[in-house]
Amino acid sequence: MNKFNKEIVIRITLITLGSILVVFLLGKLFWYQHVKAYSMTINEQGLEILNAYEFPTYLIEEDNCMRPYDIGDGVITFGPGITYQTEQDGINDINERFNTKYTLKNNCIDLDILNELQLEIMGAYEAVVNDIAIKKFHHFTQDQFNALVLMSYNSPALFEEEEFVEAILDDSTTQAQYIEAANNYYKQLNAYYDNPNTEEKNDGFGEGWYNRILDSSEVYFGLDYEFQNNDITKNKKTKS
């Protein structure tokens, strides 16, 4: 190969590599814009709805703190539905995050810390819903997103169920179909836990879980909702 031909090959190679780089960078830019366009966060109203279930206000003590509690689901709960395998695990995590010195005896956690902890972990539950929106190029309204985070906070695995995912991606889905798709998932879980051969122990999912589905559906479809749980204001309307 003479010098002239070598220069042509080098130029073609550089042009090709440059084109690949441009395509790669444009792809990265498109994906960044796509993710940004489809990603959402729960708003203040959505957080209020969520905490109507996750923050048992009757457990708040006079000094504005709350102790860990056990609802029989195989884990220990701190504040707004934040769970750990053991109480010591939770205390260790909180002490590490916030430079506090809680112990098994001194275990009434300040509400400000519990609220901050919830905000720190909220992104994981928002991501469950956002991942579906991003992958399926589907825009949720703020009401819909709030309702779905209410469900993902309870059980992220629900969003791995094809029936439920298809329901929330179909704009023609009715409230009854939404409720049925979610209920079917919990019925399967109850059947699993009721099986005598199941080693994993859990009290199962009862009325409280089905009430959450009903409230979630009312928020999802922008209806006037009346909470079935806790003491939050009744008949309150959400806004997109």
Strand element count = 4
Tally of individual helices: 8
Using only CA atoms, what is the Rg? Answer: 24 Å
| Largest sheet data | 2 strands, antiparallel
What do these coordinates show?
The structure is a single chain. The longest helix is centred in the first third of the chain and has 36 residues, at 3-38. The protein has 240 residues and is mainly α. Helices cover 58% and strands 4% of the residues. The strands form 2 sheets. The protein has a two-stranded antiparallel sheet. Strands 2-3 form a two-stranded antiparallel ribbon. The protein has 8 helices and 4 strands. Residues 230-240 have low confidence and may be disordered.
Sequence-ordered SSE layout with sheet pairings:
Blueprint: H1 3-38, H2 44-54, E1 65-66, E2 76-78, E3 82-84, H3 87-98, E4 109-110, H4 111-136, H5 142-154, H6 162-169, H7 175-194, H8 207-220
Antiparallel strand pairs: 1-4, 2-3
Helix pairs in contact: 2-5, 4-5, 5-8, 6-7, 7-8
Question: Which features would summarize this protein structure in a list?
Answer:
single chain; 240 residues; mainly alpha; two-stranded antiparallel sheet; 8 helices; 4% strand
Outline of the structure:
The chain has 240 residues and is mainly alpha-helical. The protein has eight helices and four strands.
